[in-house]
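Have a close read of this protein, sequence plus C-alpha coordinates, and explain what the C-alpha coordinates say about the fold. Thanks in advance:
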Amino acid sequence: MISQFWHSSFDVDPFTSFTLAILLLFVGKGLTRRYGWLQRYNIPEAVVGGMFCALVVCGLYYTVGLRVVFELGARDMLLLYFFAAIGMGTDVRTLREGGRPLVVLLVLACGFMLLQNGLGMAVAEAFGLDRRAGLMAGSISLTGGVGTTLAWTPFFVETLGITNAGELGLAANMLGMIAACLVGGPMAAWLMRRHALTPSGQSDVEVGTRYQDEAHLRLDYNGVLLALLWLNLALMLGEGLNSLVALTGLTLPAFVGCLMAGIALRSAGELLAPKPGRLWNWPRMRLGVALISDVSLGLFLTMALMGLRLWELEPVVGFIATALALQMVLAVVFTAFVVFRFMGRDYEAAVICSGFGGIALGSTATAIANMSAVVRAYGAAPRAFIVVPLVCGFFIDLANALVIGWMAR
Protein backbone atom coordinates (compact mmCIF):
# COMPACT_ATOMS: atom_id res chain seq x y z
CA MET A 1 0.00 0.00 0.00
CA ILE A 2 2.85 2.37 0.87
CA SER A 3 4.60 1.74 -2.45
CA GLN A 4 1.46 2.87 -4.27
CA PHE A 5 1.96 6.38 -2.92
CA TRP A 6 5.75 6.41 -2.95
CA HIS A 7 7.11 9.55 -4.61
CA SER A 8 3.59 10.77 -5.43
CA SER A 9 2.85 14.48 -5.20
CA PHE A 10 -0.22 16.39 -4.16
CA ASP A 11 -0.48 20.06 -5.12
CA VAL A 12 -2.72 22.32 -3.04
CA ASP A 13 -4.15 25.21 -5.06
CA PRO A 14 -3.61 28.84 -3.96
CA PHE A 15 -7.13 29.41 -2.57
CA THR A 16 -7.10 26.20 -0.52
CA SER A 17 -3.57 26.97 0.73
CA PHE A 18 -4.66 30.44 1.84
CA THR A 19 -7.74 29.04 3.59
CA LEU A 20 -5.62 26.40 5.33
CA ALA A 21 -3.24 29.14 6.52
CA ILE A 22 -6.18 30.90 8.20
CA LEU A 23 -7.18 27.65 9.91
CA LEU A 24 -3.58 27.02 11.03
CA LEU A 25 -3.36 30.52 12.50
CA PHE A 26 -6.43 29.68 14.59
CA VAL A 27 -4.69 26.44 15.62
CA GLY A 28 -1.64 28.44 16.68
CA LYS A 29 -3.76 30.90 18.66
CA GLY A 30 -5.60 28.07 20.37
CA LEU A 31 -2.44 26.21 21.33
CA THR A 32 -0.83 29.42 22.59
CA ARG A 33 -3.79 30.08 24.87
CA ARG A 34 -3.91 26.47 26.06
CA TYR A 35 -0.20 26.11 26.80
CA GLY A 36 0.87 29.14 28.81
CA TRP A 37 4.59 28.58 28.26
CA LEU A 38 4.19 29.44 24.56
CA GLN A 39 2.87 32.89 25.49
CA ARG A 40 5.28 33.24 28.40
CA TYR A 41 8.26 32.73 26.09
CA ASN A 42 6.75 34.93 23.36
CA ILE A 43 6.53 32.23 20.67
CA PRO A 44 4.53 33.77 17.78
CA GLU A 45 1.15 32.13 17.25
CA ALA A 46 1.83 31.84 13.51
CA VAL A 47 4.98 29.83 14.23
CA VAL A 48 3.00 27.29 16.26
CA GLY A 49 0.39 26.80 13.53
CA GLY A 50 2.85 26.84 10.63
CA MET A 51 5.27 24.40 12.23
CA PHE A 52 2.39 22.08 13.14
CA CYS A 53 1.52 21.86 9.44
CA ALA A 54 5.17 21.45 8.34
CA LEU A 55 5.64 18.52 10.75
CA VAL A 56 2.43 16.84 9.56
CA VAL A 57 3.46 17.23 5.91
CA CYS A 58 6.94 15.88 6.71
CA GLY A 59 5.34 12.90 8.45
CA LEU A 60 3.23 12.16 5.35
CA TYR A 61 6.34 12.22 3.19
CA TYR A 62 8.23 9.72 5.33
CA THR A 63 5.31 7.39 6.10
CA VAL A 64 3.45 7.13 2.78
CA GLY A 65 5.81 8.95 0.42
CA LEU A 66 3.29 11.72 -0.29
CA ARG A 67 4.85 15.06 -1.18
CA VAL A 68 2.40 17.88 -0.36
CA VAL A 69 3.17 21.13 -2.18
CA PHE A 70 1.32 24.33 -1.28
CA GLU A 71 0.80 27.14 -3.80
CA LEU A 72 1.66 30.22 -1.71
CA GLY A 73 1.25 33.08 -4.17
CA ALA A 74 -0.63 35.26 -1.67
CA ARG A 75 2.27 35.21 0.78
CA ASP A 76 4.33 38.02 -0.76
CA MET A 77 1.35 40.38 -1.03
CA LEU A 78 0.62 39.88 2.68
CA LEU A 79 4.17 40.97 3.49
CA LEU A 80 3.68 44.18 1.49
CA TYR A 81 0.47 44.99 3.39
CA PHE A 82 2.23 44.37 6.66
CA PHE A 83 5.12 46.74 6.00
CA ALA A 84 2.83 49.39 4.54
CA ALA A 85 0.87 49.20 7.80
CA ILE A 86 4.09 49.51 9.84
CA GLY A 87 4.91 52.65 7.86
CA MET A 88 1.39 54.06 8.31
CA GLY A 89 1.65 53.52 12.04
CA THR A 90 4.91 55.44 12.27
CA ASP A 91 4.90 58.96 13.65
CA VAL A 92 7.68 60.93 11.94
CA ARG A 93 8.66 62.38 15.32
CA THR A 94 9.50 58.86 16.47
CA LEU A 95 11.40 58.29 13.23
CA ARG A 96 13.75 61.18 14.01
CA GLU A 97 14.60 59.53 17.33
CA GLY A 98 15.84 56.42 15.53
CA GLY A 99 18.96 58.04 14.02
CA ARG A 100 21.71 57.06 16.46
CA PRO A 101 20.27 53.63 17.43
CA LEU A 102 19.92 52.84 13.73
CA VAL A 103 23.61 53.52 13.08
CA VAL A 104 24.67 51.56 16.16
CA LEU A 105 22.54 48.54 15.23
CA LEU A 106 23.88 48.59 11.67
CA VAL A 107 27.48 48.55 12.91
CA LEU A 108 26.66 45.67 15.27
CA ALA A 109 24.95 43.78 12.44
CA CYS A 110 28.00 44.17 10.19
CA GLY A 111 30.27 42.89 12.95
CA PHE A 112 27.96 39.96 13.56
CA MET A 113 27.92 39.01 9.86
CA LEU A 114 31.72 38.75 9.89
CA LEU A 115 31.55 36.42 12.91
CA GLN A 116 28.69 34.48 11.36
CA ASN A 117 30.58 33.89 8.12
CA GLY A 118 33.78 33.01 9.92
CA LEU A 119 31.94 30.35 11.92
CA GLY A 120 30.26 28.92 8.82
CA MET A 121 33.58 28.69 6.98
CA ALA A 122 35.24 26.97 9.95
CA VAL A 123 32.47 24.33 10.13
CA ALA A 124 32.66 23.73 6.37
CA GLU A 125 36.42 23.20 6.63
CA ALA A 126 35.90 20.76 9.52
CA PHE A 127 33.52 18.72 7.31
CA GLY A 128 36.07 18.60 4.48
CA LEU A 129 34.20 21.08 2.28
CA ASP A 130 35.47 24.14 0.47
CA ARG A 131 35.59 26.67 3.30
CA ARG A 132 33.72 29.20 1.16
CA ALA A 133 30.75 26.83 1.13
CA GLY A 134 30.35 27.85 4.77
CA LEU A 135 29.18 31.26 3.60
CA MET A 136 26.00 29.53 2.47
CA ALA A 137 25.43 28.60 6.12
CA GLY A 138 26.38 32.13 7.16
CA SER A 139 25.13 35.57 6.27
CA ILE A 140 23.99 34.56 2.77
CA SER A 141 21.17 32.29 3.92
CA LEU A 142 20.66 33.42 7.51
CA THR A 143 20.94 37.20 7.53
CA GLY A 144 20.23 37.48 3.80
CA GLY A 145 17.38 35.01 3.41
CA VAL A 146 16.05 33.13 0.39
CA GLY A 147 16.46 36.03 -2.05
CA THR A 148 20.13 36.51 -1.21
CA THR A 149 20.71 32.74 -1.37
CA LEU A 150 19.23 32.46 -4.85
CA ALA A 151 21.10 35.55 -6.03
CA TRP A 152 24.52 34.23 -4.95
CA THR A 153 24.05 30.57 -5.96
CA PRO A 154 25.14 30.99 -9.63
CA PHE A 155 28.40 32.65 -8.53
CA PHE A 156 29.21 29.86 -6.07
CA VAL A 157 28.33 27.13 -8.59
CA GLU A 158 29.83 28.56 -11.77
CA THR A 159 32.76 30.60 -10.46
CA LEU A 160 33.77 28.81 -7.26
CA GLY A 161 32.77 25.33 -8.40
CA ILE A 162 30.67 24.53 -5.30
CA THR A 163 27.99 22.50 -7.08
CA ASN A 164 25.68 21.98 -4.09
CA ALA A 165 25.81 25.61 -2.92
CA GLY A 166 22.12 26.19 -3.61
CA GLU A 167 21.03 23.14 -1.62
CA LEU A 168 23.26 24.13 1.30
CA GLY A 169 21.92 27.69 1.34
CA LEU A 170 18.25 26.78 1.11
CA ALA A 171 18.61 24.08 3.78
CA ALA A 172 20.37 26.51 6.11
CA ASN A 173 17.68 29.13 5.51
CA MET A 174 14.96 26.59 6.24
CA LEU A 175 16.39 25.60 9.62
CA GLY A 176 17.41 29.18 10.33
CA MET A 177 13.86 30.45 9.95
CA ILE A 178 12.65 27.91 12.50
CA ALA A 179 15.47 28.79 14.89
CA ALA A 180 14.84 32.53 14.47
CA CYS A 181 11.24 32.14 15.55
CA LEU A 182 12.20 30.10 18.60
CA VAL A 183 15.07 32.16 20.08
CA GLY A 184 13.94 35.79 19.73
CA GLY A 185 10.97 35.87 22.09
CA PRO A 186 12.48 33.70 24.85
CA MET A 187 15.65 35.79 24.73
CA ALA A 188 13.67 38.99 25.31
CA ALA A 189 11.79 37.36 28.19
CA TRP A 190 15.11 36.24 29.75
CA LEU A 191 16.61 39.71 29.41
CA MET A 192 13.58 41.28 31.07
CA ARG A 193 13.79 38.90 34.03
CA ARG A 194 17.58 39.09 34.37
CA HIS A 195 17.71 42.89 34.33
CA ALA A 196 14.33 43.51 36.02
CA LEU A 197 13.20 45.67 33.10
CA THR A 198 9.99 47.65 33.32
CA PRO A 199 7.81 47.14 30.22
CA SER A 200 6.05 50.11 28.69
CA GLY A 201 2.57 48.67 29.27
CA GLN A 202 1.23 50.89 26.46
CA SER A 203 -1.80 49.37 24.77
CA ASP A 204 -1.22 51.09 21.41
CA VAL A 205 1.20 48.43 20.19
CA GLU A 206 2.65 48.59 16.70
CA VAL A 207 1.18 45.29 15.48
CA GLY A 208 -2.22 43.95 16.54
CA THR A 209 -3.34 44.35 20.15
CA ARG A 210 -2.08 43.22 23.53
CA TYR A 211 -3.31 39.77 24.58
CA GLN A 212 -5.43 41.08 27.43
CA ASP A 213 -7.09 43.69 25.19
CA GLU A 214 -8.20 41.31 22.40
CA ALA A 215 -11.63 40.63 23.88
CA HIS A 216 -12.35 44.36 24.21
CA LEU A 217 -11.21 45.48 20.76
CA ARG A 218 -13.78 47.72 19.04
CA LEU A 219 -13.49 48.30 15.30
CA ASP A 220 -15.22 50.90 13.20
CA TYR A 221 -16.52 49.98 9.71
CA ASN A 222 -15.48 53.25 8.08
CA GLY A 223 -12.19 53.15 9.95
CA VAL A 224 -11.32 49.72 8.52
CA LEU A 225 -12.41 50.84 5.04
CA LEU A 226 -10.23 53.95 5.28
CA ALA A 227 -7.33 51.82 6.48
CA LEU A 228 -7.67 49.50 3.50
CA LEU A 229 -7.85 52.45 1.10
CA TRP A 230 -4.68 54.10 2.41
CA LEU A 231 -2.79 50.82 2.62
CA ASN A 232 -3.61 50.12 -1.02
CA LEU A 233 -2.37 53.60 -1.91
CA ALA A 234 0.81 52.86 0.05
CA LEU A 235 1.35 49.67 -1.97
CA MET A 236 0.90 51.58 -5.22
CA LEU A 237 3.24 54.36 -4.12
CA GLY A 238 5.73 51.80 -2.81
CA GLU A 239 5.84 50.08 -6.19
CA GLY A 240 6.57 53.43 -7.82
CA LEU A 241 9.35 54.19 -5.33
CA ASN A 242 10.96 50.80 -5.97
CA SER A 243 10.80 51.42 -9.73
CA LEU A 244 12.55 54.77 -9.31
CA VAL A 245 15.26 53.21 -7.16
CA ALA A 246 15.71 50.44 -9.74
CA LEU A 247 16.63 53.08 -12.35
CA THR A 248 19.79 53.75 -10.35
CA GLY A 249 20.83 50.09 -10.66
CA LEU A 250 20.09 49.39 -6.99
CA THR A 251 17.65 46.59 -6.16
CA LEU A 252 15.73 46.72 -2.90
CA PRO A 253 13.25 44.25 -1.41
CA ALA A 254 9.72 45.21 -2.49
CA PHE A 255 8.57 45.75 1.09
CA VAL A 256 11.09 48.58 1.65
CA GLY A 257 9.22 50.83 -0.80
CA CYS A 258 5.92 50.02 0.92
CA LEU A 259 7.40 50.84 4.33
CA MET A 260 8.68 54.20 3.06
CA ALA A 261 5.39 54.92 1.29
CA GLY A 262 3.43 54.26 4.46
CA ILE A 263 5.63 56.68 6.42
CA ALA A 264 5.28 59.32 3.68
CA LEU A 265 1.48 59.03 3.51
CA ARG A 266 1.09 59.22 7.28
CA SER A 267 3.33 62.31 7.42
CA ALA A 268 1.51 63.97 4.53
CA GLY A 269 -1.87 63.22 6.07
CA GLU A 270 -0.93 64.69 9.44
CA LEU A 271 0.56 67.77 7.75
CA LEU A 272 -2.17 68.51 5.21
CA ALA A 273 -5.15 67.44 7.33
CA PRO A 274 -4.30 68.10 10.99
CA LYS A 275 -7.99 67.80 11.85
CA PRO A 276 -9.77 64.49 11.11
CA GLY A 277 -11.76 64.53 7.86
CA ARG A 278 -13.72 62.12 5.71
CA LEU A 279 -10.79 60.64 3.80
CA TRP A 280 -8.03 61.14 6.36
CA ASN A 281 -8.90 60.31 9.93
CA TRP A 282 -5.99 58.59 11.65
CA PRO A 283 -7.62 58.19 15.09
CA ARG A 284 -10.56 56.42 13.44
CA MET A 285 -8.56 54.15 11.14
CA ARG A 286 -5.66 53.36 13.51
CA LEU A 287 -7.24 50.15 14.82
CA GLY A 288 -8.07 49.08 11.26
CA VAL A 289 -4.46 49.50 10.22
CA ALA A 290 -3.32 47.53 13.28
CA LEU A 291 -5.81 44.75 12.51
CA ILE A 292 -4.74 44.41 8.86
CA SER A 293 -1.10 44.51 9.94
CA ASP A 294 -1.57 41.75 12.50
CA VAL A 295 -3.56 39.49 10.17
CA SER A 296 -1.10 40.01 7.30
CA LEU A 297 1.97 39.18 9.37
CA GLY A 298 0.31 36.18 11.00
CA LEU A 299 -0.81 34.67 7.70
CA PHE A 300 2.51 35.46 5.98
CA LEU A 301 4.57 33.69 8.63
CA THR A 302 2.11 30.78 8.79
CA MET A 303 2.35 30.30 5.03
CA ALA A 304 6.15 30.62 5.08
CA LEU A 305 6.48 27.85 7.68
CA MET A 306 3.73 25.54 6.38
CA GLY A 307 5.55 25.54 3.03
CA LEU A 308 8.83 24.23 4.47
CA ARG A 309 9.90 20.92 2.92
CA LEU A 310 11.80 19.52 5.86
CA TRP A 311 12.71 16.29 4.07
CA GLU A 312 14.97 18.27 1.71
CA LEU A 313 17.41 18.73 4.60
CA GLU A 314 18.29 15.03 4.60
CA PRO A 315 21.26 15.06 2.12
CA VAL A 316 23.13 17.78 4.04
CA VAL A 317 21.77 17.20 7.51
CA GLY A 318 25.15 16.64 9.25
CA PHE A 319 26.86 19.82 8.10
CA ILE A 320 23.75 22.00 8.27
CA ALA A 321 22.67 20.74 11.72
CA THR A 322 26.13 21.37 13.16
CA ALA A 323 26.47 24.78 11.53
CA LEU A 324 23.01 25.93 12.60
CA ALA A 325 23.44 24.73 16.19
CA LEU A 326 26.64 26.76 16.50
CA GLN A 327 25.08 29.74 14.68
CA MET A 328 22.20 29.73 17.16
CA VAL A 329 24.62 29.84 20.08
CA LEU A 330 26.59 32.66 18.45
CA ALA A 331 23.41 34.66 17.73
CA VAL A 332 22.07 34.30 21.27
CA VAL A 333 25.37 35.21 22.95
CA PHE A 334 26.07 38.17 20.66
CA THR A 335 22.52 39.50 20.94
CA ALA A 336 22.12 39.09 24.70
CA PHE A 337 25.54 40.41 25.72
CA VAL A 338 26.50 42.84 22.94
CA VAL A 339 23.38 44.12 21.17
CA PHE A 340 21.41 44.55 24.41
CA ARG A 341 24.22 46.54 26.00
CA PHE A 342 24.82 48.90 23.09
CA MET A 343 21.11 49.47 22.40
CA GLY A 344 20.51 50.91 25.86
CA ARG A 345 19.87 48.01 28.30
CA ASP A 346 16.17 48.94 28.61
CA TYR A 347 12.81 47.51 27.53
CA GLU A 348 13.19 48.85 23.97
CA ALA A 349 16.62 47.20 23.80
CA ALA A 350 15.10 43.84 24.82
CA VAL A 351 12.50 44.15 22.04
CA ILE A 352 15.25 45.06 19.55
CA CYS A 353 17.16 41.97 20.71
CA SER A 354 14.17 39.74 19.92
CA GLY A 355 14.15 41.27 16.44
CA PHE A 356 17.91 40.94 16.02
CA GLY A 357 17.66 37.26 16.92
CA GLY A 358 15.09 36.95 14.12
CA ILE A 359 17.12 38.66 11.41
CA ALA A 360 20.39 36.99 12.44
CA LEU A 361 18.93 33.56 11.72
CA GLY A 362 15.84 34.05 9.56
CA SER A 363 14.37 37.07 7.81
CA THR A 364 12.90 40.52 8.38
CA ALA A 365 9.47 38.94 8.77
CA THR A 366 10.63 36.64 11.57
CA ALA A 367 12.34 39.61 13.25
CA ILE A 368 9.09 41.59 13.25
CA ALA A 369 7.07 38.56 14.33
CA ASN A 370 9.35 38.09 17.34
CA MET A 371 9.04 41.75 18.33
CA SER A 372 5.27 41.64 17.83
CA ALA A 373 4.93 38.70 20.20
CA VAL A 374 6.92 40.60 22.84
CA VAL A 375 5.00 43.89 22.61
CA ARG A 376 1.66 42.08 22.66
CA ALA A 377 2.65 40.70 26.04
CA TYR A 378 4.44 43.73 27.52
CA GLY A 379 3.44 46.89 25.63
CA ALA A 380 4.54 49.12 22.78
CA ALA A 381 8.15 49.71 21.69
CA PRO A 382 7.96 52.36 18.94
CA ARG A 383 11.71 52.92 18.52
CA ALA A 384 12.31 49.20 17.97
CA PHE A 385 9.74 49.08 15.17
CA ILE A 386 11.53 51.90 13.33
CA VAL A 387 15.14 50.86 13.81
CA VAL A 388 14.88 47.11 13.13
CA PRO A 389 12.86 47.21 9.85
CA LEU A 390 15.09 49.92 8.38
CA VAL A 391 18.31 48.11 9.32
CA CYS A 392 17.02 44.66 8.35
CA GLY A 393 15.15 45.61 5.21
CA PHE A 394 17.48 48.17 3.68
CA PHE A 395 20.95 48.85 5.03
CA ILE A 396 21.86 45.32 6.03
CA ASP A 397 21.34 43.97 2.50
CA LEU A 398 23.85 46.46 1.13
CA ALA A 399 26.36 45.67 3.87
CA ASN A 400 25.83 41.94 3.45
CA ALA A 401 26.66 42.12 -0.27
CA LEU A 402 29.98 43.81 0.52
CA VAL A 403 30.83 41.31 3.28
CA ILE A 404 30.00 38.29 1.09
CA GLY A 405 31.95 39.65 -1.89
CA TRP A 406 35.02 40.20 0.27
CA MET A 407 34.94 36.83 2.06
CA ALA A 408 34.09 34.77 -1.05
CA ARG A 409 37.33 35.72 -2.84
Summary: The mean pLDDT is 83. The first helix runs from residue 2 to 5. The chain has 16 helices and two strands.
